[in-house]
TrEMBL record:
Recorded GO CC terms: bacterial-type flagellum
Domain of life: Bacteria
Domain Flagellar motor switch protein FliG middle as annotated: residue spans: 107-178
Name of the protein: Endoflagellar motor switch protein
Organism encoding this protein: Leptospira adleri
Coiled-coil regions, chain positions: 81-108
Amino acid sequence: MNSLSSRQNRAGSLLRILGEHLPPEVYRHLGPETTGKLLETFHKTGKPDSKEEREILSSFLGSLSKIQREENIDPESLNLIRELEALLKEEKEERDLLQDLKQKSAEEISRIVSGENSDMIALVLCFGDPDAAAAVLNDFPESRKEEILIQIHDLDLSSEYEKNRLERFLKFKLEALALEEKSLPTRNQKGKKAADLLGRLNPGDSQKIFDRIREKRPGFAENIIEHFFRMEDLLFLEREPLNRFFSSFHPIVLACALKGTETEIQLRILEKLEPALAASIRLESDSMGPISLAEMETAQNGILERLREEIEEGSIKFWRAT
């Protein structure tokens, strides 16, 4: 009975990790009754930590590999296996973030803790190089320094929970900082180039050309759409339409989207906003915990999709500067 329960919980955890990526054929094969039981275990199981997730994925990958040897497997499942193999390889090759933190300078640690709450700052400083951590702590105002020291006193540095929490935070923050240093690599340079050229044409001519591309090469058109508008394009809007456009979004959405842009772009956009709106976005950004790249991209895509719609409707006039 315990073995069966363990397998069900493992299945629920696997569904939590891979659910949205599983093809519909999986659920059709299981049938309504088994799928219902699986969903019950999904709701009973919590989110697995990084170690459990690796074990579950490794076990699942092993099972899929056996199936692959025993019978012909469909292309979609093969792609899933390859993705899992790449994921596991990436996990194995991932550097030790906590050990790497000990090698970072005071300047690097200062960038990591910038904008974070006292609890997270304390955790980072405890695992960083002592001299570098002391230099970072010394730069804070006295009142904030006291808050951080109290948090340090309350931390259990031997706790696996705290170490896992710090690892997740470092992975998120280092990825976010990397985005500030360079733009995300494009998946299709031709699509980006075409989008940039279309954006510099008269909007009417640009739309006609794009419609012809969409008719003849729908796949290429989709890639152009992906690159057509970028967050930095918002800087081409005049102050009044930009404020009106941003006012239609909740500040937390705007803060999330701006976290995924370069620091210079963030500052220039905020400078064009009304003080009250800019302040509300900064407040949300300062109080926001770690967010994933997927969350930042989702917020950006929502904003840029709305921008595209309003430009097409004519409610926003947009023309990239040459």
